[in-house]
Every structure is written in structure tokens, then in C-alpha cells.
From TrEMBL:
Source species, domain of life: Bacteria
SUPFAM superfamilies recorded: Putative DNA-binding domain
Residues forming coiled coils: none
Domain HTH merR-type, first and last residues per copy: 4-74
Species the sequence originates in: Nocardiopsis alba
Keyword Manganese: no
PANTHER family: MERR FAMILY REGULATORY PROTEIN, REDOX-CYCLING DRUG-SENSING TRANSCRIPTIONAL ACTIVATOR SOXR
Keyword Mitochondrion in record: no
Annotated region described as Disordered, given as residue ranges: 24-45, 69-137
Protein name as catalogued: MerR family transcriptional regulator
Length: 338
């Protein structure tokens, strides 16, 4: 009993709420196998191992009841928590009706959102330790749960597995973007969980940096730069990874790139295209766009200029000096590989 944990301590180690532990114990029979002399619940190391496995399976997209059955099947048949009263919630028939079992594909299947929703977060307010994703595939829900538990290892493993199977574009548009949008909505609704947003962004960035592809071709590179005031360049990292995956050389200047640095890069590298990212409208956007447009037209070789990001929505006629606006990663790849 010396190494047994209280429910509060167990919940903190697992990154879940104590009410979640009570729910798993009551519904699925996975809970503490010991009691203190005073009758209080205590979690042994073996109990914690079972709960970690349950968290892992739920993070991979299994409905909690299905995940619990798998955990219990791995244990000795005599195991049972001290207060288990397993309910029929999330039974196989119910899971089939809601599409959980049929849409989850541990080693295959599509990343496209289910027919019940677009994969983007719901506009409904969200409470508790959940993200407002609306109807979403179980894999997306599982990654969201892992992110809210701050389990960055599981988040990165699930994202990388999806990326290896489906590619950068599909993983970004169907998993990473809905997660990041959902995290933004969570902050708007609660003004909390900034730490989860930072951890999720870091995890997505870490996975994107691991993407490799064929040896870069001898084609002229694509330059990817943010505006001087733009601090968030994660979408450019996704575009760089997608280009790398296809063997297309690129030069990423990243967040807060001074206009003169982008201009000098154009002169030094003679790129085939330049993409200027702007998420939030800023005073330096117009001046930077004009300066870069002059630089792209001054070279002996043709250089295409594209804008990307929602910050350009009010640029109006200024976008006419570019070759177009890239509204998605799919569209960007279509233009840049053309």
C-alpha cells in the first residue's frame, strides 16, 4: 500500500480529471484494486498500468468501452476493481450505430471527416476538458483527448502514423487544422488552456519537421516567409513539409521576417515562387507586399508571388499585383508544383 496513489494523485499523473477516473471505474470496471484502512480508493502500480493503457487506446480513437474491454482482456480474468459496476454504455451495438467502430481504422482508412460533419470545430461553446470539434472521426477525437491530457508523445505518434500513411496534405487538412481551430475556440470560450495550445502547436511542428522525401530536384526553390508582424508560421511549416515530401526545394524564413530580408533572399536565390503568409492584419502588410512584388519583377527570371492566410482578406486591389491567393494547402501544392 505504500506505493498506492490517491485518486487525485493518479488523475494528475494520467492527465485526466478525477471524475473521469470515477466514471471509468463505475462504467467499465477499471479502477483501484485496493482500499486504505479507512475505505478510501487507492491505485496500485498495476492499476496505473491498466489506466495508462486505457488512455493510450482512447487516444488512438477507440471508444472508451471498447478500449476498456481490450485492457481487461489482457489482464488476469480474476481482476476486478473494488467498486466496479460495469454498465452497457458504448456497447458494440451502440458503437456501431454511432459509427465509432466502423470509422476508426487503426492501420488504414481515410482521414476525411465523417458524413456527420466537416471535421472543423463546432461553434457551440465547450466546457470541461474537451475540444469543440463537433462530429469528428474517432482518430481526431483521440488526438484531441491526448492533447488535453498534455500527452505530447501520443499526439506526435498518432500524427506521425497518419502522416506516413496518408501524406502531409491530408494529415494537415483533416487532423492538424481541426485540432488547432478547436484549440482556438477553446481559448475563446474559456480563456484557459493556453498551455495545451502551445504544446499542440509544438507537437504538430515537431512532426512536420520530420517529413522527408526524395532528394531535392535542381528546380529553383520556393521562398516561404511571414510578414514582419506575423509571429505564427505553422502553416508555412506544413507547406514546407509538403514540398519536401515531393522533392521540391524550399527556403523557409519563418515568423516575423523583415521585408528587406525577404527581398534579399529573392535576389540571392532567384526562386520560382514566393509565398507571403499573413494570419493577422497588420500595418506592415501593404508595404511588404509592394516591396516583395517589386523584387519578384526585377529579376531576369520569372518569379511568381502568392499571398496566403486570412490576414489578406481586406487587402482588396493590392492582391492584383500577385499571381493569386492560396486558400488551402491543397491549392498551394497545385500552384507551386505546376
Amino acid at each position: 500500500m505504500n506505493d498506492a496513489l490517491t485518486p487525485g494523485a493518479a488523475a494528475r499523473l494520467l492527465g485526466v480529471a478525477p471524475t473521469t477516473l470515477r466514471s471509468w471505474d463505475r462504467r467499465y470496471g477499471i479502477g483501484p484494486g485496493e482500499r486504505s484502512p479507512g475505505g478510501h480508493r487507492r491505485y496500485s502500480p498495476a492499476d496505473m498500468d491498466r489506466l495508462r493503457e486505457l488512455c493510450r487506446l482512447v487516444g488512438e480513437g477507440f471508444p472508451p468501452a471498447s478500449a476498456a474491454r481490450r485492457v481487461l482482456e489482457q489482464d488476469a480474468p480474476t481482476y476486478r476493481s473494488t467498486s466496479a459496476d460495469v454498465s452497457s454504455e458504448d456497447s458494440p451495438d451502440e458503437a456501431h450505430r454511432t459509427g465509432h467502430e466502423s470509422t476508426y481504422a487503426p492501420s488504414g482508412g481515410s482521414l476525411a471527416p465523417s458524413d456527420h460533419g466537416s471535421g472543423r470545430p463546432s461553434r457551440r461553446r465547450s466546457g470541461g476538458d474537451t475540444l469543440p470539434l463537433g462530429p469528428a472521426p474517432p482518430l481526431l477525437q483521440g488526438i484531441a483527448r491526448a492533447a488535453m491530457r498534455m500527452d505530447c508523445e501520443l499526439v506526435e505518434r498518432l500524427l506521425w502514423s497518419a502522416l506516413e500513411e496518408h501524406g502531409t496534405v491530408a494529415t494537415w487538412e483533416n487532423l492538424a487544422m481541426p485540432l488547432l481551430y478547436g484549440m482556438g475556440r477553446k481559448w475563446e470560450d474559456t480563456r484557459r488552456y493556453v498551455e495545451v495550445e502551445h504544446l499542440l502547436s509544438w507537437s504538430v511542428s515537431s512532426v512536420l519537421r520530420r517529413v522527408t522525401g526524395p532528394a531535392p530536384s535542381t528546380a529553383r526553390p520556393v521562398v516561404l516567409a511571414c510578414l514582419p508582424h506575423e509571429m505564427h508560421g505553422l502553416p508555412l511549416e506544413a507547406l514546407a513539409a509538403a514540398l519536401r515530401e515531393r522533392g521540391r526545394p524550399q527556403r523557409v524564413l519563418g515568423p516575423c521576417t523583415p521585408a528587406e530580408a525577404t527581398v534579399r533572399t529573392i535576389a540571392r536565390t532567384a526562386p520560382s515562387a514566393v509565398v507571403l503568409w499573413c494570419h493577422a492584419k497588420g500595418d506592415q502588410g501593404v508595404a511588404t507586399l509592394r516591396a516583395v512584388a517589386r523584387a519578384t519583377s526585377a529579376g531576369r527570371l520569372r518569379t511568381a508571388l502568392y499571398t496566403a492566410g486570412p490576414g489578406w482578406r481586406e487587402a482588396g486591389p493590392l492582391t492584383r499585383i500577385t499571381d493569386g491567393h492560396l486558400s488551402s494547402l491543397t491549392e498551394a501544392m497545385t500552384h507551386l508544383l505546376r
